[in-house]
Amino acid sequence: MSADERPSEPIRHASANDHGVHRARQGFESNPLVRRIPAISSGAYVTPDVQTITQLRFQSVLGTPWALDELRPGLEKAAG
After folding, report:
1. Does 7 map to a domain?
2. Which of 43, 46, 60, 68 is 20 to 30 Å from the Cα of 77, by its Cα?
3. Nearest one of 44, 45, 57, 50 to 20, comparing CA atoms
4. Are 71 and 46 in contact (CB under 8 A)?
5. What is the pLDDT, as a whole number, of residue 68?
6. CA gap 54, 33 in Å, rounded
7. Are the CB atoms for 9 and 66 separated by under 8 Å?
8. CB neighbourhood size of 35 (10 A)
9. Which domain of life does the UniProt lineage start with (predicted)?
10. Are residues 41 and 51 in the same domain?
11. H or E stretch including 17?
12. CB-CB contact of 52 with 70 (8 Å)
């Protein structure tokens, strides 16, 4: 599939839930036990947003390539 055939990025709307997700992530990552996990302490930890997770859970021909493109930068960074 060429870049011209891929769907454009979905419109993202900030919501009250975004703030709650951010706070939950901060709380999780600040837990002393969680910080001892090698992937988290080394920065090799990728947290996709809700839209990306949804595209992976409910796969489609257009959504899956989009979700993988969204994950690629974080996975490349995590891989070093």
Report:
1. no
2. 60
3. 50
4. yes
5. 94
6. 28
7. yes
8. 11
9. Bacteria
10. no
11. helix 16-30
12. yes
